[in-house]
Structure formats: structure tokens, C-alpha cells
Specification:
about 140 residues, alpha+beta, two-stranded antiparallel sheet, 6 helices, about 20% strand
Length: about 140
């Protein structure tokens, strides 16, 4: 399993373009577009790695019953749409809120966001509140197909 620093490096490489890394795999240059707010960055320090389904939300939705190993796999999941590089400002405004309390400022991203949220919740068999479901339904209504 990758360490936290290696996971960060992999996400920055995956989500950026023209990413150059130093000998310790840290992103030293590149270009990233924060899908939440459609802002472009050239410094990795302006980004946070967001958990699509925040850890606290997952805990309230069923992760409290998981083994430590499964919680760690969830927190570091590079296979599903769970981790992505976004602006620090958007990630911090999101906090541990679900889609019923926070939606990405970039409305064109709503469809992708809702699909990713549903995918992660379904993959990990996490519960969804009625308010969450209602907002996800509205957000999925923005999808063109």
C-alpha cells in the first residue's frame, strides 16, 4: 500500500498536466484545474486532495462498522472516484458535508460529482440520507445523457 506522500504524488500527477516531480516524487511544477470551481493552478501548494465522500460522512454512513484495514483502503482509494486534487478553498468550504449541504460552485461539474458520489457510496455500501438522495437526484438531472 502506498504511503500518504506517495498517494498525494500520484493524485497530483494523475489530475495535472505537464507535471514535473523531484527526486522524492513531489510535484514541483504542472497545471491543475480544480473541477469543483473551474480554477486553474500552477502550484501544487494551492491544492488539497479531497475525499469525494468525506471520511466523517463515510463514518456516519456505515464506515464506523468497518475494520481498520477497510477504513484505510477507503481513505486511500485510487481505483474509484474517491480522491481528487481540487482548490484548497473549495475543499475547505466542502468540509465533511454531503451534497445536500454543499455542491461544487461549478454547476457543469454537478453531473460528474453526483455520479462519483453515488459510485463511491454504492461501492462501499454506505447509506444515503433522504436529503442526500433528493439533492443527488437534482444534480443528476443536470446530466445530458
Amino acid at each position: 500500500m502506498l504511503t500518504g506522500a506517495r498517494i498525494l504524488a500520484e493524485i497530483l500527477k494523475r489530475d495535472g498536466t505537464g507535471v514535473q516531480r523531484d527526486a522524492e516524487c513531489r510535484a514541483v511544477s504542472g497545471r491543475w484545474v480544480s473541477v469543483y470551481d473551474d480554477k486553474t493552478f500552477t502550484s501544487a501548494s494551492d491544492l488539497d486532495i479531497d475525499h469525494m465522500v468525506p471520511l466523517a460522512n463515510a463514518w456516519r454512513s456505515g464506515a464506523s462498522q468497518w475494520t481498520q484495514e477497510k477504513r484505510k483502503a477507503f481513505a486511500n482509494d485510487l481505483t474509484h472516484p474517491q480522491l481528487l486534487a481540487v482548490s484548497a478553498a473549495s475543499n475547505r468550504s466542502k468540509g465533511d458535508q454531503g451534497p445536500d449541504e454543499w455542491q461544487p460552485p461549478s454547476k457543469p461539474y454537478w453531473c460528474t460529482y453526483a455520479r462519483a458520489w453515488v459510485s463511491v457510496k454504492a461501492t462501499y455500501e454506505l447509506s444515503v440520507t433522504e436529503a442526500e438522495k433528493n439533492t443527488l437526484t437534482e444534480m443528476l438531472g443536470t446530466c445530458s445523457s
